[in-house]
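Appendix B. Worked example

We walk through a single record from start to finish. Start with the input: the chain for Cation-transporting ATPase E, Arthrobacter ginsengisoli, length 803.
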Amino acid sequence: MSGPPAGGLSRGDVASRMRHGLANQAPDATSRSLWEIVRANVLTLFNAIVGTSFVLLLLLGSWQDALFGLSAVGNSVIGVVQEYRAKVSLDRLAVLEAPRARVLRDGTVQEIATADVVLDDVLVLRAGDQVTADAAVLESGGLEADESLLTGESDPVDREVGSEVLSGSIIVAGRGTARVVRVGAESFASRLTADAKRFSLVNSEIRNSLDRILRWLTWALLPVALIVANGEMQSRGGWEQAIASGAWTSALVGVIASVIAMIPLGLVLLSSVAFAVGGVRLAGNKVLIQELAAVEGLARVDVLCLDKTGTLTEGQIVFDGVHELAEPAEPGWEHALGWFAADPEANATSRCLEAAFGHNGGNPAVSSVPFSSARKWSSVTFDGGSQRRGSWILGAPEVVLTERSGAGAVAGSPAGVALGKAGQLAASGLRTVVLAYAGDTAIAADKATLPSDVKPVVVLTFREQIRPDARQTLAYFREEGVALKIISGDDPRTVAAIARSVGLDVVDGYDARTLPADPRLLEEVMATYMVFGRVSPDQKKDMVAALQRRGHTVAMTGDGVNDVLALKEADLGIAMNSAAAATKAVARLVLLDGRFDRLPGVLAEGRRVIANIERVSKLFLSKTAYSIAIAVSFGLLNLQFPFLPRQLSFTDGLTIGIPAFFLALMANARPYRPGFLRRSLSFAMPAGLIVAASLLGLNVYANSSGSAAASPEALQSASVLTLALLGLWILSVVSRPLDAKKLAVLIAMCTALLVLLNLPLAQEFLKLTLPPADMLWAAGAAVVGGGLVLEVLAWVHGRKFPR
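Next comes the structure step. The output line below is what the pipeline stores for this chain.
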């Protein structure tokens, strides 16, 4: 395609480019469709096992034994809802927020939809516009673009003819035209958006550990089920007799009971509930959780990467003060500053002066030169009247006083004094600007050159507004052993000064333009330095990845689109409410009121969730351990499985499900320690073996006694009583140290057990009966013996893993 004519593209040119797919339409699909989300959460191996067991029990007429299906449904629903919310958030992600674009077509300026911009269109750019596609500048009248959302550079960038303006940047000064050179998926904004839309779940140690347990159980289920099935059939006279007599139906119920008992469905569900409750609690404190497992994330973080603008600072430049020089200031300088502040074409720095220096109109300016980031100064010329006659110049001291002052800038001269003063102020992290007077020399807009003789009048300082909560919050993280990294697109000296102002021990910042390309060297740099400036978006992502390769769990805060890729790469992305829409879409946490001091509360909530889930996981995994041990041992010894599914649901509810729900929501400030799964299994596996050994001893005794105690109903009842009491014993061990709330839960469960075992309706539903006296003594002995061994286990585990 040829370039545009002087009057822009014609209607025919636009139609041709539309047909060739050269319009500004970017693909908006995320990596997972709704069907893919449903399939990933519903069509799983464990759901297949649970669903098949559920259907078989219904076909056998044992609907009372199929209550476990509700837990599986809950797990699937929570998983689908959680991932679908993430999908909706990603689908809304956009770097470009401009609904309309201004283009030159057929010799006239037209406003069109952003998606209708085509390759080679001529964009007509004015102050306040967002650039809708990557374009090369054709005409520039002081054109300046704010690319801070894209690159992190807080200063506007001057765009001359031939340079490029990137899609997503904002025109903050001047006007001009630009030819579109990249559209749609090829534009900078679309490429950034595509990377951000890549679907991923937050890295959760709890979820990873549960997934690992489920994978292990996958391999164990089939062989254990076959062992149980053989034992059940042999205990009923062998396969042929059991099939002929119809006893195979009760044997199948026993197999299903053993299989379902092995799966810690309640733990998966309770983990999701604990995360959800944590999310609700944080929402009450103005913290939005985009993904439930993110509640856990910050508790595991050991490196916190902070973007300066919008995180440590409020993202705005504020006027700091006036610093007069040795000589008396030229009269009229306040009026000049008022004019600069009120100028419609004033940049952000000049507008900061409006509150301090009012402008009453006065005589209009004879001429003025708007600020340009290339020139680094602006000027205004008056012809007298209420305002001092002459030219006033506002700009960077090193430009205004050095380039045209010649020998006048030597030490001791007015220019030298001003430059020395400005240098001292800049070293403290302040941004400095000088106001100079050029006498009667007029500065024309079409010949924007500095006069040869300018006199410095005052030095003005500006600063970024530090968040009032930044110092205290950073001190908290340092006390908690979390390393801090300040990463910004601004000058490293400025970033280092701001870091010092919030209490960090920093000498100099590292200039990211010299970052090594070698990944190993980059890791060393990240380990050595705390403050980094002039960092590009891609570098931020690489820096986060380098920290992760060194084994760190990394959180990243930010508010600009330039932070999107790093937030996506980090283990936990945190966005401020002032952040761009794209940034909030990919973040795991959003601070809705922008208060940085919310993060310690998030850390505390994450610790509570992790510590409590680890506590209740010992209950659920103990059940999995004794279920496998009972199934294997009883099957190999050709003993009937001692429980019905409904009886296991009853004991699970009293000793695990209900108390675990309360334990998971209680306060727990224990610091995070890695190794959640190892600690849980080191208690749960021996505890499960102790319970299984106690039940096995009871059943072997009953079957060898030759008394009526060996009847299936009596034996099941004695086994249920033994399992329930040992389960409550494990609950008391796991709940320690006991306080009033935990003790209340334990007493309530013991009371409920006593009431239900003596309630006729419950006895009928659960098929329980009062065992004979000798069986009760045997059950009591099994409980006491197993309980004492559990106490020894608790003591050994406590010594190995102190709280």
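Two observations about the output. The chain has four domains: 11-26+95-196, 264-279+608-800, 283-314+468-602, 315-466. Residues 404-408 have pLDDT under 50 and may be disordered.
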